[in-house]
Amino acid sequence: MISVEEALEKVLSYVEVLEPERKSILNCLGQVLAEGVYSTINIPPLDNSAMDGFALRSEDTREATQSSPRYLAVVGEVAAGSLPTNEVRPGTAIRIMTGAPLPEGADAVVRFEDTDETSRKSSKNDLSQIGILCQAKKGLNVRCRGEDIAEGDLVLKKGEVLRPQEIGVLASLGRSAALVIRRPIVAVLATGDELIGVDQPLAPGKIHDSNTYTIAAEVSRYGGIPKILGIGRDSVQSLTEKIDEGLDADMLITSGGVSKGDYDIVKDVLAERGEVGFWTVCMKPGKPLAFGVIKKVVGRKKKKVPHLGLPGNPVSSMITFEQFARPAILKMMGKKVLGKPAIQAIIDDDIVNTDGRRLFVRVNVTRRGGQYYASVTGPQGSGILTSMVRANGLAVIPESSHAVKAGDTVEVQMLDWAEEQSQSKTLPIVSIVGKSQSGKTMLMEQLIAEFKKRDCRVAAIKHCHGGMEIDHPGKDSWRYAQAGSDAVCISSPDKLAFMKNSNHELSIEEIMPIIGPEFDLVLVEGFKKSKLPKIEVHRKELGNDLLCSPEELSAVVTDGSLDTLVADTCKLTVFRSSDTVAVADFIEKNFVFKSPSSAC
Ligand code: AMP
Ligand code: MG
What we know:
Radius of gyration: 35 Å
Bound molecules: adenosine monophosphate, magnesium ion
Strand order of the largest sheet: 15-12-16-20-19-17
Number of strands: 35
Low-confidence stretches: 419-424, 594-600
Largest sheet: 6 strands, mixed
Mean pLDDT: 90
Distance between the termini: 45 Å
Helix content: 10-25%
Shape: flat
């Protein structure tokens, strides 16, 4: 068995960077520039205004203020796209729009907001004069000729990947075409007697060919052009014919027929056609892999087409594509960065690695409280393509690691990134409010116990107005704080206490990252001024009125008769103090986020 790295090195040793082509900038997104691009113009071509306002001589605004404006004669107007007809002489100004060329003589632009133009207009005053309300420095709101790009600059280097912004720069230089490394054409062939086309009805014993579509989509995603060859049958003749159709491509990718079954004859056909290596790669899924070159003769020239034979199982073929085909396509396109972006994440599940291969586990990565978490996306069979649908990354468990425990940090190759990634989960938080002595803490206790019964992970936050019980003088933590430490953390084998000095009252948003993401529910006592969903505890002895206004509340829990509160709370859900289960049901139904992994 060879390692993933050795296999990748061999694959890359067989593929070359393709030749350049000149094409419309509209069609070269993601391609690599094959020439340095120099500018033949200045951008901007002339000094111009960055604001709508008045072009003037900065020295004419000396000591101008709101209460003591400097008045200038307006001697013209210039809009973007036209040229000024006048020059700005001392004591004059020209009305100017954003992007319009700066008139001769002017060295600054004062925006409309810093002039008295609006008040002149509303009081129908003379507009042949303008009052300048602030002193302008030389160069204020002026964009200088060539400040973005100067004539002769090397603007884009050879080897740069064209993103929308580079394409925009090419357009601003007046170039409608660019010389780029061409996209590879990748022939895609599915193999197997059990496969039928996507449009055909399923017959007994048959399955739809999905690999063709997954692989073609992957080829396009990474910048190649897929050439679909269809389905090759498990016979030498059928495979030979199909492979011949794919030999004008830059690369051939087959799926299936490379393991040890009786009908796995892709490798035999290929062995006759070129130099082919068959490997078992030390990875799971995706152990069997074929790679080599198929020889072909074009006119008098002999050519070699790289061939990658992926395993047939849909997940295996996708994961081996990611590891080997993707870097090969990127190399052919002239890219330098061939690896997948990887992150470190805390794994939510135990994983065992029984046979010493590198394990690629399908995971869903979320970011919570500034930390990445990865959860395994259900059953991991190599035929279960929906495990990829639920995944946005592959956790990579090294061959040397026999087991990973929930809470361990693992490396995750991201299949999707940034904006494609699922949003982070926000924790459900409910605040229990009420007058002093209303029974908030008792309800907190009862709810915590009730949610624990429901298998929820609960965090509780108490808002104290005064000092903190745990902050006792003489204790080590107190002494650290006295010595000036801004935060003190006390950690024991099974507990963590954290105190942080703050120069302001901490908001719940500031507290939550410290609490951490691993809870199903956060119950807060107090924080009545926050925007959290609130349940007020009402006690009849303390009066009929409520602490919060009913619009702010989600529910009320009272020991009084429900009627006493009706006027105020006609739209509110009201619970009896004794009915903790009903309150918990209400919280669970309305606020608790249910994920498949959380039992709550
Ligand atoms: P093979 O590697 O040819 O032995 O195939 C392994 C498994 O993958 C078998 O269960 C095949 O039916 C399945 N398989 C092979 N090719 C495809 C395909 N193009 N689409 C969906 N499943 C496939
Ligand atoms: Mg097969």
